Structures
1.
Amino acid sequence: MNLTSHEIRIGLAGAAVAALAATLPLFDQGYYLSISVNIMLYAALCTAWTLFSGPTHYISLATAAFFGLGTYSVGLWINHLPYPVLVGIAALVSASLAGLVGAATLRLSGVYFVIFTLGLAELVRQLVTWAQAKFTTRMGLYVFTDMTEEHIYWMLLALTVAVFITGWAINRSRLGFAMQVIGNDETVAKHVGIDTARAKIVLFMVSGAFIGIAGAISAPRYAYIEPPSAFNPMISFLVVIMALLGGTKRLWGPLVGVVPFTIVMDIVSARFPNHTSIVIGLAFLAIVYFIPNGVTGLIEQARAKWQARQTAVGEEKAA
Amino acid sequence: MTAAPILSVNRAQKKFGGLIAVNDVSFDVKQGELLGLIGPNGSGKTTMLNLISGALKPTAGEIALGGKAISGLAAHHIARRGVSRTFQLVRVLPSLDAEGNVMAGAVFGHRRLWGEEARELAHRLLERVGLAGKAHAPVAAMTYIDQKRLELARALASDPRLLLLDEWLAGLNPSELKIGISLIDELRHEGRTIIMVEHVMDAIRTLCDRCVVMSSGVKIAEGGVAETLSDSEVIRAYLGDDDA
C-alpha cells in the first residue's frame, strides 16, 4: 500500500475528528448525548446509502427494509446468541436481501428501481407483521440488554468510521474505478469489459449490509421493537433528504446535511409535534428544487468560480 | 496460405420486429487484416458491428472469435475475450481525465492491468495517438479529433485481438483526415486486426485489404477493394439504377 501525503493528512484529520467525537459522552449523558446518537445514526445510514447511490445515481428507498431486518435480527435471537454474532447476522441478512433486489431490479432503469425499493420495504414490513401475528401472539419483541446510550453512540461512531474506510478502499479498487466509468457512460463501461450489473449489485449489498448493522446497533435503544417502528418508511425518506442536502458526490457530503438537519428536526418535532411531516415534505421540495447538488455541490461550484476568477485576474496581470 | 480466421461471421441475422436490419450476412476476418465494411446509409453496417461487439444479440446465426462462439454473449464478456471498439458518435468519459479514459480500457478489458502498469500503458498509448502531454487535460474541452484519438487509445488499451472502428474518420476536416488515416495505417502495420465501418472512400482505398459491401441488410459484394468498388451491383446500391 502506498499512500500519498494528501491521503495521510486526510486520514489523520478524520481520525482526530472521530477521536474528538468519541469523547462526547464524557461531557454529557442527557440531551446532547441523545441527539448525538441520532446524528451518528443518520451519519452512518446516509454515508452507507451514499456508498451506493452516490456513484450510481439510483435512489434507494429500501433503507427501512435493511434497517428493520437488522433490528429484528437482534430482537429475534438476543436471548439465544451473543450480540456480536447478531450484528454479523444482521449484515448477512441485509446483504442477501440487497443482492436479491439488485439482481431483480438493477438491470432496469432508475425510476423502476425507486418504486421497487419503496414497495419492497413495505412488503417486508407487512410480511413481518403477518408472520408475527400468525406464529406468535405478540405484536413486537422485547430487547433487554445492559447496553447504555453511550455504548450505542460509540458503536455507531465505529460503524460510521468503518463505512468511510470501506468507501475509501472501494474508491481505490477496480470496483471504484468501474463505478466511475459506469457513472460516466454505461455503454462504454460494458464495452471496455465491465460487468455493470455485478458491480452495482456488489455495491448495493455492501451498502445494505452497513444499514443492517446500523439497525442491529439501534435495537437495544428501542427496548421494544415492532414493525411500524423498525420498518418505519420515514427512515428511508429522511436518509434520502439528508444525503441530498449534504451532496452525494463525495462520501463525506452527507455529513454536512445530517448534522444541521437532525438538530432542526429535533427542534421542530419538539415544538410542532403534529406538523413534523409537513416540515419534512417542504424541506424535501426545497432541497431538490434549490440545491439539487447539495451543500457540498454549492461549495464546489463557488470554489470553481473563485478559481476561475483568480486565474482570470492572474492572466490580466501577466498581460 | 490460409490462416484460421480471427473472426468468422456465419449467417448472422438481426430483426427489429418486422424490420430485418442484418440478413444472413457471412464473412471472415483473418489475423492482421484490415477489413472495410461499407454500404449506403441504413444498410446495416453499424448493426453488424453491434452484433460483433455484443451491444446487440443476433436473432440467428453465429459469430466466432478465434474459433469460439461469442454470439449471444454480453458485451463485457466479448470485450474481455479481446474485442474492443470505438463509437459512431464519439463517447468519452467526461468526469475522468485523458489518462483515466485510456486506463478504463486497460483495466477491465482483455489484458486487465492495474495500478502503475495500467497508467504507464495509458501514457504510452496517449503518446501513440498524438496526445502526449495531455494526460491530465479535461476531455470534455478537447477538440473532436482529440476526443477521437482518445477513444482509439482507450480501445487499444486492452490490446484487442480485434478492433472495431465505427466511422472513426467521420466528421474530421481534410487535414485531420490525413492524420487519422496515417494513424490507422500504422496500426495495420503493427499487425492489428481491424474492421472499419467507413463512408470515406479515400480511406477505404488507401487502407483496406479487403472489403464487404452491405445494402439493405444483406451482403452484396466481398473481395479486394478495387474490384469490389467497381462491381455493378455495388455502384447501383450507392448511386441508383440510372448510373449503373
2.
Amino acid sequence: MLTNYIKLAWRNLIRNKNYSIINIVGLTIGLACFMLIMLYVNHEWSYDKFHGDGDQIYRVGLERKYPGRSRSYAIIPHSYGEAIKEEISSVEESCRLFFFGGNNFQFKIEDQSYEESSFMWSDSTFFKLFDITLLQGDPSQVLNLPNQVVLTESAARKYFGQSDPLGKTILPLNQNQPLVVSGVCDDIPENSHFKFNILISSSSLGPFLQQPNYLSFSAYTYIKLTENTDPEVVERQFPDLVVKYASGQVLNHFGVNYEEYQAQGNGYRYFLQPLYDIHLTSNLEAEMRVPGSKSRVYFFCIIAFMILIIACINFMNLATARSAGRGREVGIRKTLGSNRLSIGAQFLMEAILISLCATVLAWGVTSTVLPYFNTLAGKQFILQDVLQGRFISMVIVVALLTGLLAGLYPALSLSSFKPVEVMRGQLIHSRQGRSVRNGLVIFQFSISVFLIVASLFVYQQWLFTQNKSLGFEKDGVINLNTTGALDRIESESFKNELLRLPNVIAVGGCNSQPGQGYFGISFKANGANEMTTGSGLIVDEGYIECMDMEMVTGRSFSKSFMDTLSLVINESAAREMGLEDPVGKRVTSSDNFLNTVPGEVNNYTIVGVVKDFHFQSLHHKISPLFFVHNQRSLLGAGIDNQISVRISSEDVESTLASMGSLWRSMESEVPFSFTFMDQEWANLYEKEITTRRVSSLFTIIAIFIACLGLLALAAFTAEQKMKEIGVRKVLGASSLDIVTMLSRNFLKLVIVSILIATPLAWYAIKQWLTNFAYSIPMQIWPFIIGAFLALFIAFLTVSIQSYRAARISPIHALKDE
Amino acid sequence: MISLKNIERFYNQGLQKAWVLRDISIDIEEGSFVTIMGPSGSGKTTLLNIIGMLDQPNNGEYYFFDEPVHKFRERKRTELHKHYIGFIFQAYHLIDDLTVYENIETPLLYKNVPRSQRRAIVADILDRFNIVAKKDLFPHQLSGGQQQLVGVARAVVGKPKLLLADEPTGNLHSTQGKIIMDTLAELHKEGITIIQVTHDENNIKYGDRVIELWDGFIKNDLKTAEALSASQ
C-alpha cells in the first residue's frame, strides 16, 4: 500500500511539473533558510555547554546601587571569590579570571618578539572548574605559582613550533620577571564566552591582589555549587557576606557605616548567572566578549519559521486550488470503495514526498552557500556541522513536520469530497476553499510586509549609528597598536617625531580607545557622601585635542602645568557628582592605583570638563568618565600604551609609510601595526550588521517565496476563470480590463495584509528600538514604502499571469467540451 | 452590411494545413436573418467567429459596413465588435459570480456607459424580457431557458446592429427553445440583423436565408423557403 502511495505521488509530481517545481523550489529555499538559521541558532545556544558540570557553575555578577540608579557589572571586587568559598558551604570551588580588554601582550621568546591579543589571568582552580582539557602539565600545579602560564595548543605551536614548550620561558616586554610555561591545554572552543591563547597565573598580577578589596571591581568570579544546590539559596547569603566584609571598607572610604550607606540608596547586590546562560542573556558592563542576544536568536528563529510557513502555505494553496481538478479523482476513488483515510493518506504522502525532495535539495543548497552565510553571519561553520547526527535528525523531523503541515489541510479538505457532487462537477467546497486560500495569502503577505518594514528600520538604525556625531572625530585617526613596546621616554620622543611628519595633524596617547572598554574607577567629591563610579581613561596632554573632543569648560591636560594630580571629567561625571561648577573642585578616590602610598588618600583637582562623547556603542547611555593623566598611572591599570595619530586625508599611503619607517628606526623587533579607528568603531555594531544583513536577506527570500505562491495562484485563478475571461472579452472587455479584474482581488488581499502587518510591525519595531540608548524615532515612511513595495511586487507577479490570460483568444476559452 | 470575399481559414497541423473554411464569399444585407447550417466540423462556428471578429481569416477580405476589417488591428476590431455585435452561446456562458442584473450590465461597463444610464437601460431590458424578478439571482439558480434568456438580454443590451447566435437552443428543450427563437424573431422584426448557427430544422423557418456549409465550402445559399422545400 505504501509503495502504491509513493508511486502515485511520484506520478502526480511528474504530471504537474509546473506546480511541483514551484512547490519544491519554494520549500527548498524555505528549508535551506531554516537549516542555515538553525545552524546559527544552535551555535548561539551551544555557548559554554561543553563544560560538563556547567549547570552547577555560576558567575557572580554585581548590581552596584547608587541613589536613584544602578549599574550592573560582570566583574566584582577580587576578594569575594575566596570569601564566598569560605563562607558558603554549598560552594564547592571558585575561580577568578582577570581580563583587561584592548591591550596587547608583548613578549619575547628567546630573541623573537611576539604580540598576543587574547590572554587572561586566572586562579589555579581554573582546570578544576572548567572543562578545558589540560594536554600537558599537572592540573593541580599549572597555575599555582606566580609567573606561570598555560598555553593553548595552537598558541604553543605558534610560539614554540614542534619543540616541547613545558618549562620554556616567555619574557614580557617592560617587565623583568619571565613567565614559565607550565602547561598546554586544548584550544578554547569558539562557543565559549571567554577566550584566551595564553592563561597567566593570577598571582602574577602582583601586590594588588594581596590587598583585600571588597569595593572596586576587577575579577570575573565563577563558583561551582554542590549538586542540587538551589542558586537562590546561595544568593540569599550574599547580603550578609557584604555586611561582614565590605562594611569596614565602606566606613573607611565613605565615612559612613554600611547601614547608613544603604539608607542613602547605595549598595552592592550580588547575584548568580548560570554559566550556560551568560552568552545569550548577560549584557553587563565589562563583558569579556560581545555577548549574543536571546532576542536576536528568537528573532532569527521566528524568521526561519515564517519562511518555512510561507513555503508550506504555497503548498497548501496550490493543492487546494487544484482540488477542483482532482475532485474527479477523489470521486472515482470513493466509488471504487476507497475510504476517506486512504485518500487523505494519499495526499499526505504526496506532500511528504515533496517535502523530502525539497529537504535533500535544501541540504545541497545549505552546503553550497555555507561560506557565504559565514561571511554574512560572522560565523565559521563547516560542512561537518551540517552532517552532524543531531542536525540531520532535526532536519528530518522538520521535513516530516513540514510535509504534515503542508499536506494535512489539503488532505482533509480533498478527502471530504462527496463523490456524487464532484462527479457532477459541482464543488460546494470551492467557495470555502477560496476563503481559506485568501486567508493564507493574507498571512503570507502580512509576514512579507512586516519583514520589509522591519528591515527598513534595521537599516535606518544602522545608518544612524554610523552617522551619529559621536562627540569625537573617528575618521582620519590611525591607532598604533604596538607602541606598548616602547618605554616611557622612547614613547615621548616617538610622539614628538610623529608630529614632525608632514600630514600628521595631532598625536595623542591613551590606554584604551573608545569602544574598546575602559576600566572602572570611582571618585568622591570632597564633602559628598557617595562615590561616583564611572569609566577611567589614561591619556597624555595631546589626546583630547587629537580626538577633536570639545572642552566645555576649563582646560585639558597641558605640558605647561603640573598635571599629575589633575583630572578631566566628562559632563555626565560632573552631573552625577552634583558639581555645578566643577573646575577647581577636589575629589578623592579609593582605588589603590591612584593612591600611590598605601593607606594615604590623594586629593585630585578637576581642571576641565569635556563634552559628553560616545565612548561605547550607542546601545549604552553616556556614563561618567574620568581622564587620568598618564604620569599618574603607574600600576595596575596600565599606562598610555596606545598612540593615536590624526592624519590629513591627503596621501594617506605615504604618511603611513613614513610612520612605519619612523617606527622601525625606534624599535626593530616589534612590527609596525595600526588600525583605522572608524573601522574599529564599525566593529562595535557587528551584531547590528549581522541582524541587518540577515534580516534583509531573509526578507527578500520570504517575499520571493510568497510571490512564487502568488504567481502560481494567479496562474491557477486565470486558468479557472478562463471561461469568464473569454465571455468578458466577447462582451467587449479589453486586455487591460481583464488584467484589472484578475489583479484586483489579489491586490485587495495584499492591502488587507498591509493593514494587519502595519500595527504589528509598529509595535515590534518600537520594542526593538528600546535596545538602543540612542535610536531613530518612529517614522511613517518605511511603512509607506513597505506597503507600496508589497503592492508593487504582488501586482507585478499577478499582472504577468493576468496579461497572459487576457491575451488568450476567447474562442479557445469558450470552446464547449 | 457584411461582405466576405474569398475567406479562408486553416490551422497548421505539422506540415499539413487543416482547412476549416475555403473560399467563402457572402454578402449579408442589413436587417436579414441568416441561418448557417451544416454537419459538425463543417466550419459553421468558425465562420460565425470570423464574422463576430473573434477570429481572423488567413486569407480573404471582410468588409463590415464597408470598412476593411481584415486590415484592422486588434484594438480597432475590438472597438467595432464592442459597438456593433452581440453574441449568444449554446452554453449561455453567463458569469457565475455575477447576478442576472450584473451579467446584463457587463457589456455596458465595457462601453463606458455612465451608471445612471446603465441602470435605466438594464431595467428596460429586464422589463422587456420579463425577468425583473430574477435580477438578483445567480445563474445557477435559473433554469436553462431562463439562463439563455438572460444571455439574449445581455447580447442585445448594448443595442448591437448584428446579433450572432451559436446554436442558441442547443441545450434547451423545445418549449424553452421556442421562447428564445420567438424572442429572436421579435428582435429581427425591430430591425436587428441576426446570424444564427443551428442544427435544428425548426429554427430555420425564423430566418429568411439559409447558408449550408460542407467541409468548409458553401454548399448551398438559398432563401428559407427554397431551402425548406429542398430538404423535404
3.
Amino acid sequence: MENFTPLSALLGGALIGLSATILLLFNGRMAGISGIMNGLFNSPKDERNWRLTFLCGLIIGAIIFQTLSPDFFAPRQGYPLWLVAVGGFLVGIGTRLGNGCTSGHGICGIASLSIRSIFATLTFMGAGMITVYIIRHLL
Amino acid sequence: MNKIFIALLSGIIFGLGLSLSQMTNPNKVIDFLDIFGNWDPSLAFVMMGALAVTFISFRFVLKRPEPIFEEGFHQSKRTDIDKSLLIGAAIFGAGWAMSGYCPGPAVASLGAGNFEALIMVLSIYTGFFSQKWFSRKIFNA
C-alpha cells in the first residue's frame, strides 16, 4: 500500500463534491459525466451548450493543475492501446445501459439515496475488481 | 448565460478535484481495483471525500423548491432494479478496469495531451452510439 495517498484523495474528492453541489444548486443538474457526455450530441440544441462548457471546464481544470504541478501528470507508457479502446467501448455501452458512471451513480446518486445508484455502484466496483483480477493475476 | 458560467466553474472544480486525487492516473485506478495485489485504497477515499460533501449539501439543496437558475431539479425518480441497470453497470465496470479510465478522468486527461485519453473518449462515444443496437440484440427490446 505504499502508493496510498489518503489526504490528496480526500481533498480531491471534496472538490468533486463541491462541483456537484454547485451544479445542482444553481442549474439543477446532476454532475454525472457519462450523461453529460452523451447529451452533447443527443439532446435538444439549447441543452448542448452547458454540457460542452462543463466538459471544457473539466479539461481546463486538468490543465490548470498540470501547470501548477507539472510532475504530477506522467502519462502511462506502454499500456496496450487496444485494451484502452475495448475498455472505452464497454464504458460507453455500459454507462448508457446502466444510466450512469462513477460520478452519476457513485457520488450524486448515492448522495441522493437512490437505491438504483447503490446497486449500480456495488456492481461496477465488483465487476471492475473481478476484471483486474483476471487481467493481472490469471492471464 | 448564468447557467453557462456555472457549468464552466463546476467543470473546472471537477477537473481540479480529479487531478489532485490522481484519478487521472489510470494505474492508480487499476491499483484500487486490484484488491488481491498491491492494493491502493485511495479511490475509496476520493469517494468518501466527495460523499462527505454531497451527503450534507444535497439534503439542503434538494429541500429548495427549485434551483437558482433553473426551473426544477433534473433528477431520476426511478427506483426499480432492472436487468439493464445491473448488466450495464457490470459492462461499465469491466471496461473501467480494462482501461483504467472512467468518463470524467478520460475527458480531463485530454487537457494533458494524453493520446490514451483521446482513444478512450472516442471509444466511449462509439459505445454510446452502439448501445441501442446492442440493447436490441440482448434484450430484444
4.
Amino acid sequence: MSVLSVSDIGISFGGLKAIDGVGFSVEAGEIFSIIGPNGAGKTTLFNVISGLYTAGQGRIELGGQDVTGLAPDELAARGLSRTFQNLQIFQRMTAVENVMVGRHLREKCNLFADLFRLPSVSRQNATTRDAALALLDEVGLRADADKLAGSLSYGACKRLEIARALAAEPRVLLLDEPAAGCNAVETEEIDALISRVAKKGVAVVLVEHDMKLVMKISDRILVLERGCPLIEGTPQQVLADPAVLEAYLGKHGAREAARA
Amino acid sequence: MPRWVRHRYASLVVLAVVIALLPLLFPSSYYYRVAALVWVSALAAIGLNILMGKAGQVSLGHAGFFGIGAYAVAIGPTHLGVPPLASLLIGAVLSAALAYLVGRPILRLKGHYLAIATLGLGVLVALVITTEIRWTGGPDGMPVKKLVVFGWRASGADTWYWITAGMLLIGTWLALNLDDTPTGRAFRALHDSEIAARVAGVHVDRFKLQAFVIAAVYASLAGSALALMNGFVNPDQAGFLHSVEMVTMVVLGGLGSVIGSIVGAAVLIMLPQALTVFQEYEHLLLGFLIIVSMIFMRDGIVPMLAKLPGRRA
Amino acid sequence: MAEFFQFLVSGLTVGAVYALVALGFTLIYNASDVVNFAQGEFVMLGGMVTVFAHAAGVPLPLAAILAIVVAVIVGISLYWLAIAPARGASAVSLIIITIGASIFLRGVAQVVFDKQFHKLPSFSGDTPVQMMGAAVQPQSFWVIGGAATVVLLLYLFLERTLVGKAVLATSANRLAAKLVGINTATIMALSFGGSAAIGGIAGVLVTPITLTSYDVGTLLALKGFAAAMLGGMGNPFGALAGGLLLGLLEAFGAGLSQLHLQGRVRLHRHPRRAVRGAAGPVRRRAVERV
C-alpha cells in the first residue's frame, strides 16, 4: 500500500490554474521524482502536499488516512517532512540546533520542565543532540555542528535542511531541489544520501533540475507541464517520450534534438 | 575565551557577584534605590526579551502587564483585604490570563500589525486604570500598603535592593534555562522561519502564546515589586512611554541576550539619573544617546561586546 | 440632529488632524519602510514655531511658513543624520531611533521654547458659525479645508510630477527604482521632508483650537499611527479614512457617553480624556492639565 497518495489536486491563484488534476502515489522506500520546466507547478504541488497551501480540489492521503487540508505541523506529526527550494534554515541557531528542532516532535516539551530545567530535560537534550550530531555526520556537516547556520555555504545549508527533515524520522520526505547550487562532488553525496534514506524505507518525493541525478536514482518519474501531468513512468519511459522533450525544448528544439 | 565563559550559568554567577559586591560601593541609600529600580526594570526586560529576542514577536504595550502587577498589589490589600503577597500572585495570574486570551487572536498578526495590536492592548489597560478612579485613584495614582510577610515589614531601600535582586536572579536563571530546551529552540526557530518551524512540527501559535504569557508574567511581577517598593502607583507605569522604554531596554542591551536586558535596563535607568545634572538638557541628551547607540551598536550593547574578541583574532 | 452635527464637525476636525499625521506616517513608510514615531513632533514644531515667531512680531502667515520650513529642515536632517546612517538595521531598531529622535526633539523644544501651553489666535476670529443648529468654530473650516488642500496637492504631486512618480516608484520597489536611475536616498530624504511639511501644516492649523506645548507630539503620533494602521499601513487613502474614522469615533463616543449614557459606556469616555490634541470641547481639559 502506498504511503503517500495524492489524487486530482487542483489549485488556482486569482483564476489562474497553477495545478490541475495532478495525482500520484508513492510506496515506502521508493524514490519518486517530479520534473518539468520552470513554472510547471512543482513547488506549488509540494506546498499543497505539505499543507502550506490549501488545494481547491483533490485529496491527499498519508498512510491511508485522509489528511487533505491539515496544517503543516499536523502533517509533520503524521510523518511528512520536507525541505525548501529557497532555503528556510534557522539562521541564528547553530547547525546542530537546527537539526535538534527537526526532532521537536520526538521530544517531550513541557514549559515548566524547561523553565526549571529538570534533570529529565537535560537527559533528553543530550539524547536529541546525539541524534542530531549523527544526522549531521550523515550529511557531512559534523565539523560545522556548532557554527551558526547563517554562516554556512549554500550547499551546506541544503544538506542541513535534509538533516533537519530527517530528524523527524518521517515516513515521507519531500525534497525540493536538494542539489541546486551544489558542486559535482556535493551532488554525488546528496545522491548517495537520498538512496540511503530510501533504503531505510522512507518514501522520497524529489523535485530536481539536475536530470542526471533524477534519472540515476528515481524509481518513477512524473512530468508536469503547466500544472498538468504529462506522463508518469520509469526513467527510461520518460526519456523515450517525445512529449517530454517537447515540453522542455519546445517543438522546434525537439525536432533539432531528434535530428542530432 | 576561557571555557567557563561559555557555561550556561556564567552570566548568572557574574550577576550574583555584582549584586553581592555592589553595596560596598554605595555611599547612600539613594544608590540602593537606583540599583533596585534597575533590577526591577531588568526583570521586566528579560521577560520581554524572551518574547522579542527569542520568539521574535514585538510588543509595544507591555507596560500594560507591568501596570496590572503594580495595581494588583495596590488594589488587593487596600480595597479587597487580600494580603500583598497573594495580590502579587493574583496580578501575575491575571496578566497571564489576559495575555493568553488576547494573545490568541493578536499573535497571528505580523510585524507592524502586531505592534499596533499590542500597543492598543497597553493603551486600553492604561485607560481602564486612569478611568476607574474609585479603584485606582485615577490619574493621580494611589498608595500601596507595605509588604508584610509573617509579621516582617519590607521597607527601606536596602531591603528592597535584596528582594528585587533575588527576583532578578531567579528570573535570569529561568530565562537562561530556557535557551537550550525544546521550548527555547521552538521560540528561536519560529523567529527565524515560521514556515520551517511549522513543517518541523512546531505548533507555532502555541509557542508564540507561551512566550507572550511568560513575558506578561515577568512584567507583572516586576510591576508588583516596584509598586511595593515605592509604596505608590500611578498610571504612567502602564503607559505607552513605559512600554517604549521597556522595548528600548531590550533592543539597546541586545535582542536575545539575557544579560543584555540587564545592561539595557541599567543604562536606561541610570542615564536619566546621571543626566539630571544637565537639568533641562536631560531629554535632549537621552534622545541623542538612544539614536547614537542604535546607529553604532545595532545588535545591542552586549552582543557587540561579545563580538569584540572575535574581531581581534 | 444639532448634536449629531456638532459631533460630526468636531469629529471631522480632529479626524483631519489624525489623517494628516497618518498621511505623514504613510509617506515615510512607503518610501523607506520606516515607522517614524517622531511624526508627532513635526506637528508640535509646526505649532510651537508659529507661536513663538508670532509672539516675536512676525505676521501670522509668515510665521506659519517659517514653522513649516523649520519642520521640513528637521525632517530632512532626521533622515540624513539618524535614519540614513542606520540603513540595514532591523525594523525595531529603526523604530527605536525614531522614538529617540522624538524624545530628542521634545528635549530641544523644551530648551528652545518652554514647558508652557501656548495658543494661537484663530485665523478668522472666534465667533462660532451657526450651522444646522450647531455652533462651529471657524477654525474647524481651516483645519478641514487645509487638510483637504494638502491631500489634493500631495495627490497632484505624486501623479503629475516626475519627482512624484519617482517617489511612487521607490515605494513600489526600491531596488527596481534604483536600477532605473532614481536616487532613492534623495527620494527618502524628500519623503521625510514632505512628511514633516504635512505634520507642520497640521500643527499650524490645529494650534488655535487645541493649544500646543513641547510634548503634544507623543499622543498625536500614537493616534496617527493607529489611524495609519486602521487604514492599512502604506495606503494613503486608507490613512485618510483611518484618521477621519478615528476622529469621528472619538467625537461620537465621547459625545454620546457624555449626553445619554453617562456612566454606562465607560470605555467611550476615555478617548476624550486621552486626547489632549482633540477639538473644541476638549480645550478646557487641556488647560486644566497645565
